[in-house]
Amino acid sequence: MFKYIAEKLLVLLRDGRKLMGILRSFDQFANVVLESASERVIVGDLYCDIPLGLYVIRGENVVLIGELDLEREELPPHMTRVSAEEIKRAQKAEKDATDLKGSMRKRMEFLDFD
Amino acid sequence: MLFFSYFKDLVGREVTVELKNDLAIRGTLHSVDQYLNIKLENTRVVDQDKYPHMLSVRNCFIRGSVVRYVQLPPEGVDTDLLHDATRREARGG
What we know:
- Chain A is of the alpha+beta class.
- Helix content of chain A is 21%, strand content 42%.
- Chain A has a single domain, classed as SH3 type barrels (Roll), CATH 2.30.30.
- Chain B has one domain: SH3 type barrels (Roll), CATH 2.30.30.100.
- By secondary structure, chain B is an alpha+beta fold.
- The A-B interface holds A 1, 4, 10, 12, 14, 16, 18, 28, 30, 40, 42, 59-60, 62-70, 72-76, 79 and B 19, 21, 23, 25, 35, 37, 43, 52-63, 65-66.
């Protein structure tokens, strides 16, 4: 882990969030301090980096810490960067769609199909 | 300590680590520690299209507590040795 210090990293959290930032500190529990942290929100082919500032992440929430290869393209070329407002709208639309699917399923449950 | 030693012997081999969130990552085992945290090199995600954010990750650290399976190369497993080590461990060293 020492060689990751002062590098730009991607931290995957247990709730599926993706944080990026510069590693300033860590310990044996994988508690980490990220400077200039930002969250990368991806909805379909849209993405947005939302700046967060200095973050201390409790180790138990960490899934994976990845070293970002700055030489390579960070994301596939077909993905487009959008504003924070736009990604929030896309996120809400996606959530509404899954909620609707869930509620439809619930109402149809008596049919007992699978 | 058995599995810690066991994984240490596998350093340098190609393994696939499947996580509890269903993300599966293949790479060369670089190191492992007492918590079975794993470091992989030259990683690639098995289902790349589903996880576009992992595209530029070459090396990574995986927290031991989130690992579900580690898929090993068959030639990396010496079952006789593992049997002996298990019996020795059960007897208390």
